[in-house]
C-alpha cells in the first residue's frame, strides 16, 4: 500500500526558518579530515554516511557543515545534547567557571560540585541522595556494578539481550547488543529475554518476560544475585520501550534474590521521555542505583551514579577516586542544564512534541508498509523498517538508503537496533513541532522517491 501523498513534481521539504548565521568556516575540509588523516584515527573513525560529513558548528537543534549548510540534528550527538547545541545559558555557565577554576580533584572542595550534587539529588525520588561523579556512561555503569556486587555480596549480574551499557571491559559484559559486543570474558553475567513488545517472544506481556529473570536466578545461579540493570527505553537497541509491568515484576524478583536494581538513564534521563525526569517513572518503579551521562552535561564529558546512603557506604572502606569526576567546569555546565530544563519546561515540551511526532509517524505507517513499527515516548522515538510486515523481516539495506536520503534533505537521524533497521529520533529537547513536521515530510519524500 505504498501510496505517496506527494506527486512526482513535489519539491523537497524545506527546513523551518531559523534566525542564526553560522560563522564562515576556513578550516580543513571533510576530505582532509576524513581521508588524509584517516590513518591517525583508525577504527575510532565511526561514521554513518557514505560521504563524510564535517560538522563545524551547532546551534540549538541544528548543525552546520563546512559549507554553512544547516541540518536538523534529530539524534543530538547520540542523545547527548539535551538543551540544545551551544545553549547560551549553558555556555555562559561553562565560560564563567572556566575563568575561575578549571580543575580541582575531589580531594579539595569546590562549590560547583556541591551545588550540582545537591541539585541532582533534588531530582531523585525516595532515598536516592548520594551522588558520585564520573566522566561517561560506561564509567557510571562500572561503578554501579561494583556497588551492587559489594552491597549484595554476590557476583551475578542480569541484563537484557539487546542492551547496550558501555564499551569498557566490565560494561561490555553487561552489553548484549551484537553490533557492539566484543568476545571478552564476561564472568557471571546473565542476559535475559528482551521484553520487546514488537519483536519479543512474549509480545507485550511484561510479567511473562519477568519470569525469564526468575528462571535465570533459579537455574543459572546459586539463587542469589548482585543486581539487574536495564534502560526503560533501550537506546542503541532501537528505542525499544520495555513491555508494561516488566520492571515492577523484575525488581521484586531481583530484590528477593538479594540483588539491587539499577536503572541506566544514560539516554532516557532528564525528561526526554516526557516524564518528570527519569525513564523509570514510566514503569512506576524506584531503582536502588541510577546511572546517567550524555544529556547531563549537554555535551560535556560528565556522568553520575546516584544511590542510597546504605549502598554508597560500601565504598567507604577503600578509596573510590576519579581524577576528573565532578570537574568544576562540567559541574557548572551540568547545573546550568538542570536549570534550563526546568525553566524552559522541557519535559512537558518533549511530551507535547513527541505526541505530535509519533502521531504523524503512525499516520505515515498507515501508508507505507516498510514502516513496521513506530514507538517511543516523548522525544525518544524509534521507526523500525521491515521488508515484510507479517514476517517483520528487517529492512536493513533500505534503512541505509533512507539514511542517506534524509541527509541529502538536511535531516540527521540515528540508526540502530538489533538489525540496524531502526531510525532513532532523539533530538535536542528544544526540537519543535515544525521540526517534527519537516522530519516526517522529509521521510515521506524519501519513501515516495524510493
Ligand atoms: N548506557 C547507555 C544506555 C548508553 O546508551 C551508553 C552510550 O551510548 C552508555 C551506557 C555508555 O556511555 P558512554 O559512551 O558515555 O561511555
From TrEMBL:
GO terms for molecular function: alanine-glyoxylate transaminase activity; pyridoxal phosphate binding. Its EC number is 2.6.1.44. Keywords: Aminotransferase, Mitochondrion, Photorespiration, Pyridoxal phosphate, Transferase, Transit peptide. It is found in: Mitochondrion. One of its GO terms (biological process) is L-alanine catabolic process, by transamination. InterPro entries: Aminotrans_3 (IPR005814), Aminotrans_3_PPA_site (IPR049704), PyrdxlP-dep_Trfase (IPR015424), PyrdxlP-dep_Trfase_major (IPR015421), PyrdxlP-dep_Trfase_small (IPR015422). It holds the Pfam family Aminotran_3. Gene3D superfamilies: Aspartate Aminotransferase, domain 1 (3.90.1150.10), Type I PLP-dependent aspartate aminotransferase-like (Major domain) (3.40.640.10). The keyword Metal-binding does not apply. One of its GO terms (cellular component) is mitochondrion. Its cofactor is pyridoxal 5'-phosphate. This is alanine--glyoxylate transaminase. It comes from Cephalotus follicularis (Albany pitcher plant).
